[in-house]
Design brief:
Blueprint (H helix, E strand, L loop, with lengths): L1 E5 L5 H13 L3 E6 L4 E6 L5 H8 L4 E6 L18 E3 L2 E3 L3 E7 L6 H13 L4 E3 L17 H14 L2 E5 L6 H7 L2 E4 L7 H9 L4 E4 L6 H12 L6 E5 L17 H8 L4 E3 L1 H5 L5 H11 L3 E5 L17 H17 L3 E2 L2
Helix pairs in contact: 3-4, 3-11, 6-7, 10-11
The structure holds phosphoenolpyruvate and manganese (II) ion.
């Protein structure tokens, strides 16, 4: 891909002319309009030199250079400014943190309503809950499926909370997209490329979780699968990786936050729950993530944590969750961020 950087404040006419020129060459342009600067990505596979010199001489073009990273649309070269998008009215990637919380799995209306009440009181706009669960054992609870989606829809209509829920297969994308404000791709599906492409073709924002044995570059390449199909609303999620350490379920890679911030414009969300696997450790990891510059958190909480049908050990009680949100808001303030509302 060639990166075409337009001059600051280049008029729309000049931007349009470059887009047209690229299309005229039979190539595909990708537009990134920031507050200060417009960048156009020009996908090409053959000889780049003639295209580069042609575009380089056009009015309003500051410079043209080949993308240096394997992920292109996800890179800061393509979009120097942080991505900021609105999900059903909630800004993500801004100075306001995107907070998401809820049970691991959707279990009942009463369960979701009890969680929803605490979320609303804690200024958390996103309710998470899995209707389809990717379980390590085929004998474990697999989720309520369509019935779970219906329960989420009911709570959404009563409370206005936005829904984050996982989609496991390409065949379910259309159905899940009807209910979700954000579709989650779980760690185990991070490299399910067919699923990523299908999500790229749908227009629902995606929360892409890092595979438990995946590098950050692999995570960004997976994001690229979604972006390259036209869906630009992708959030990355660090949820802990496998290391030799046995004291925690996974090791939260806190470095992932500043490293991703350097490499990509996409918002970075941290999941301290699946990293820790132990509710006593969740608050420390959550606060560290906010301090490190995460754009939001996704946390598991349950009205009766020990009775959670999945991931009971890491579920926070509603009270512990509310306390964590208060402390998170203080840390957020200390690093120049705030909560939504
Ligand atoms: C989950 O969010 O409940 C989940 C299964 O997460 P992960 O894919 O990160 O294991
Ligand atoms: Mn879980």
């Amino acid at each position: 891909m060639l990166i075409v950087v337009m001059e600051k404040h280049a008029p729309v006419r000049q931007i349009g002319a470059v887009l047209k020129e690229i299309e005229g060459l039979g190539l595909q342009p990708h537009l990134s309009r920031g507050e200060h600067q417009t960048v156009i990505g020009c996908m090409l596979s053959g000889e780049s030199e003639p295209v580069k010199s042609r575009l380089g001489t056009m009015e309003g073009v500051e410079r043209v250079f080949p993308a240096s990273r394997p992920y292109r649309l996800a890179s800061r070269e393509f979009r120097p400014e942080d991505s900021l998008f609105h999900i059903s009215g909630v800004p993500v990637g801004s100075s306001r943190l995107a907070m998401m919380a809820g049970p691991c799995a959707v279990e009942s209306h009463a369960q979701l309503m009890a969680v929803a009440e605490v979320l609303t009181a804690s200024k958390v706009p996103f309710l998470r809950g899995g209707a389809y669960k990717p379980r390590s054992s085929p004998y474990s609870f697999q989720g309520l499926g369509p019935k779970g989606l219906e329960l989420l829809a009911e709570v959404k209509s009563r409370t206005g909370l936005r829904i984050v829920t996982e989609c496991l297969t390409t065949g379910d994308v259309e159905l899940v997209a009807r209910y979700a404000d954000v579709i989650q791709v779980g760690a185990r599906n991070m490299q399910n490329f067919a699923l990523l492409q299908e999500l790229g073709r749908c227009r629902v924002p995606v929360l892409l979780k890092r595979g438990m044995m995946s590098s950050l570059e692999e995570l960004l390449m997976s994001a690229e699968y979604i972006l390259s199909k036209g869906n630009s609303q992708v959030m990355l999620c660090e949820r802990g990786i496998r290391t030799f350490e046995q004291a925690t379920r996974n090791t939260l890679d806190i470095s992932a936050v500043p490293v991703l911030k350097r490499l990509t414009h996409l918002p970075v969300i941290v999941d301290p729950s699946h990293a820790a696997g132990d509710r006593a450790l969740v608050p420390s990891l959550a606060l560290a993530a906010v301090a490190a510059g995460a754009d939001g958190l996704i946390v598991e909480t349950h009205p009766d944590p020990d009775r959670s049908v999945s991931d009971a050990a890491q579920a926070l009680s509603l009270q512990a969750f509310a306390e964590l949100m208060q402390r998170s808001e203080e840390v957020a303030k200390a690093v120049g961020r705030s909560f939504y509302n």
